[in-house]
Design the sequence.
């Protein structure tokens, strides 16, 4: 670490010679691999952007000049050069520094970012603020080619292009999204690469940007030259740089999709150092869909640029063939298209992570629910989690279950997940969301196959005094609460509500007879969620209601154990609260 | 009505000669003006698309061939030609037929649509469904130039372009959005018009479409020729037609913005036939912002393509000058840009209608709330309403108030609205949403100026037994309930909660002393809303809670009186329920 030792801020980068910068790049690569191999993280995007980041800090003057990193999958070199190298070198540092840009870490970060396609919009706001205030710095957005498929990126480009003042958009074209790219714009990027930026038919010029192309986007020298040329431009500029994703680490170059993000691994062999064996919902879901397509040729699996998140490897995608559509990172398109696929007589199944579903509230409401088309949406990674603040899975139920016409199902176990999914795909009446449970558990009750009686809860065990409504992933927690209550001499009723999106009035009414307290357990935020519907229902009755779920807050890499304690989501704390309430 | 009399379905259109089609066009125009002048509606978009719609039905075979109308502001001629002319000719018919496409009205409509920029995405789903099922019809999306600024439109184009099979996107370029267009793409459209489609730098070709241009987009003959040429194309085609917005009605041609949509008017004079005088929140908001900008040069007003909805006429926009940014119909950009404006030291105030805010859940959460930037959002047209199903204002509170960090304020009166707005603009701590109240009423209590104690409710009158929490627009309803209760010998406590997004534990706790029942009144859907938070809070206490608001459902042009009765939102019905609950 001859050079990295000396670099504590961007000012230190500017002191180095070209040869020293080249050496620094290799040290940064080693630091990135060190972190990724130990705690996991984004590999390929960061390795490919090392030279460009060095050149940015060499030419521009952050924090006066403002950098905005799209999705910030590629912010590691920037963090290393802005006083946070410990986050890549030491175990203690790794805990402190997040994998995304984060203004509370450094004045060199302008936004917390973890969803794609936002950088140009955010940069356009910084640029407008600068102009309004009569300031004169550069505003630079760095966006990957994969993020260009998102509508917000386009809205940003469309506006940045007519800003009339300085904004520099750098398109980091590594010819990859998380997986391969999908969409017409990638034909244009290819044409531009093939013509070294000379093709007349140029999407960015069409929008009004001054455009410049750099083939060797991993050459620090050429990048510095390019950035110097456009620094302080008084108009919108788009710099298209061609880089190599994963550069410097053979495995990541050879298998770009697998190495976009990775769990901890051995640097030498590339093998994972954590055990991921065992049954999982990616395999379960894929096998179900594959078999279903074999029986029903109208089934179409839809995904928005994150096939790997659902275990849909290139091999599996090839098996699904024309029954798999990746729309690129374009969640709005995914929902609208799914609605129309259903309208057209197909059985669309859209796979989306909880936090990315946030992109689609309006499409869920207007394009899908209002039209009441029978598209199916599978929500993955839902639930309270130790994730970083940008990828929390606790908000989807509150967001989606309050939209009319949507039937939101929360299965408790593998068996029930498959039953619900199969029912959802088979019916033609409702848009249905199915949330993947957190653990692959066996059902200890008779799982039903037909969910066409909307909002009918399943009473798993009839008891008295206390009724526990244990929703979806928290069914197991409900079982534990049941056991603890039994130890206290209470034989509670245990209910599997199944439906996040509505209440079973008959069931709730019947509980009034022999119960004093209804307890709701949901793996998500309480505000706007399931439990509050129950609390409202019992508002004027004698029934007491106690709701358990997460607080309305953004948490950032807080261990699950700590969150469960904070929210009283351990069986012991729940029972303690129950005993107090009785 | 020589020809319109004979046209009851698209088949009848195909029988007419060119001269007859021309005459039919004029009869359709008269029918459109008849409806618009009597009940209000979209004027310019429909008048401009008459010829293209005739040509579409002449060449294609709906419903086998599928038309998808973007935002469906321009669907009147289509409705007239597909068996729904009564909706434009008779008073009774006008009540039955909505102003938007509606599958329950006709098999010629594929989707209920009222938000922009969705047509290409929806059409791509229909096209994929056709391919999966081995069918062979045409799928046609008709999208206006104004809608092309929206991210979902881009996501749709990006995907449609690589569909590999038939999809025909018609860009109806009338050189106008609702107001003037904003964004780089409009430079490209201008270039294409100027070169009659010959310019090499072509956004649509860049994406991969076969492209064709028609200068005379109001010539039935040329449109028929164009559509025949591309009918049954086996690949994605984009037809750029240049039309005249408002064609055939002088006022609408001369003032395109004012005549995009209009209230009932006198056809001859163009004058409104309804009285819109009196104080209104558009004037109030504009005057506040204008004066604020005079004092504070960092204030920036942001809007996404709907300035007229907030009374921001061209004159007023000119006054605001560089302190007004119209991002085009691009709500995601508006929120992200506002967040960044705040980050950059400005005071952004984004004006958005309740139903269009739905486009921005993720931007509100990730770009704004997670970053906790102090942007201000003014929500207009919020509340339970008699609007069509696509423009309901009852969902925004449930959608936005459950996002962490967002402070959602619901003022009760003009005075409080201005106080809250001024506080929001002056502070640097929170993203703040202010919902415009429904009526311009005077406050009958001392309005506070400082709202920095987040979630502190204001007790307007201390009483006992019953506490009425009358939120925002429903404060007046709360007053009426108070009066009726007094007649029954109850002196209730009246509370102005002010904060939609959180609970005042101290206030709620204090009510336990002398109250049996807390009543919540909110002008929005109950599911996920304000009342449920109160119900959860009192879940294990003796306090009864009764929540009033709307049911979770899409309603379509249901009179407000009927909705209020349905939801028990009249003072009498509320008091009846209260008396039952006590």
Sequence:
């Amino acid at each position: 670490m001859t050079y990295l030792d000396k670099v504590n801020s961007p000012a230190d980068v500017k002191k180095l010679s070209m040869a020293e910068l080249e050496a620094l790049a290799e040290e940064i690569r080693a630091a990135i691999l060190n972190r990724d191999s130990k705690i996991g993280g984004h590999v390929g995007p960061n390795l490919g952007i090392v030279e460009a980041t060095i050149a940015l800090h060499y030419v521009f003057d952050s924090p006066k000049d403002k950098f905005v990193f799209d999705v910030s999958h590629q912010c590691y070199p920037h963090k290393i050069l802005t006083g946070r190298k410990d986050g890549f070198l030491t175990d203690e540092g790794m805990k402190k520094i997040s994998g995304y840009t984060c203004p509370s870490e450094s004045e060199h970060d302008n936004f917390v970012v973890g969803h794609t396609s936002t950088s140009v919009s955010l940069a356009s706001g910084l640029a407008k603020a600068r102009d309004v205030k009569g300031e004169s710095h550069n505003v630079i957005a760095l966006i990957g080619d994969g993020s260009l498929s998102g509508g917000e990126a386009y809205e940003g480009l469309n506006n940045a292009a007519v800003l009339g003042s300085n904004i520099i958009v750098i398109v980091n074209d590594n010819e990859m999204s998380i997986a391969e790219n999908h969409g017409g714009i990638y034909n244009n990027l290819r044409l531009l690469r093939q013509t070294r930026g000379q093709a007349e038919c140029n999407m960015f010029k069409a929008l009004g940007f001054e455009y410049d192309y750099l083939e060797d986007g991993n050459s620090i020298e050429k990048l510095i030259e390019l950035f110097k040329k456009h620094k302080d431009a008084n108009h919108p500029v788009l710099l298209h740089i061609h880089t190599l994703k994963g550069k410097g680490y053979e495995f990541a170059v050879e298998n770009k999709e697998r190495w976009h993000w990775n769990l901890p691994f051995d640097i030498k062999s590339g093998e994972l150092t954590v055990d991921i064996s065992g049954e999982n919902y990616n395999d379960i879901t894929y096998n179900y869909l594959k078999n279903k397509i074999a029986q029903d040729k109208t089934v179409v699996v839809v995904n928005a640029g994150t096939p790997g998140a659902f275990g849909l490897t290139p091999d599996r995608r090839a098996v699904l063939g024309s029954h798999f559509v990746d729309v690129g990172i374009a969640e709005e398109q995914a929902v609208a298209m799914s609605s129309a696929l259903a309208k057209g007589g197909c059985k669309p199944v859209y796979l989306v992570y909880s936090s990315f579903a946030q992109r689609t509230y309006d499409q869920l409401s207007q394009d899908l629910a209002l039209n009441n088309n029978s598209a199916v949406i599978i929500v993955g990674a839902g639930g309270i989690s130790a994730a970083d603040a940008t990828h929390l899975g606790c908000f989807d139920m509150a967001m989606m279950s309050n939209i009319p016409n949507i039937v939101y199902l929360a299965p408790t176990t593998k068996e029930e997940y498959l039953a619900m999914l199969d029912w959802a795909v088979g019916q033609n009446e409702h848009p249905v969301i199915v949330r993947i449970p957190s653990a692959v558990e066996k059902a200890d009750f008779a799982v039903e196959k037909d969910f066409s009686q909307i909002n009918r809860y399943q009473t798993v065990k009839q008891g008295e005094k206390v009724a526990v409504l244990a929703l979806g992933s928290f069914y197991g927690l409900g079982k534990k609460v049941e056991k603890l209550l039994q130890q206290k001499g209470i034989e509670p009723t245990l209910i599997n509500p199944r439906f996040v999106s509505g209440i079973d009035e008959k069931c709730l009414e019947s509980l009034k007879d022999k119960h004093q307290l209804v307890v709701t357990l949901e793996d998500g935020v309480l505000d706007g969620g399931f439990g509050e519907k129950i609390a409202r229902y019992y508002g004027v009755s004698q029934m007491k209601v106690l709701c358990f779920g997460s607080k309305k807050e953004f948490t950032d890499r807080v261990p699950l154990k700590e969150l469960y304690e904070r929210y009283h989501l351990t069986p012991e704390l729940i029972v303690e609260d129950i005993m107090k309430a009785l």
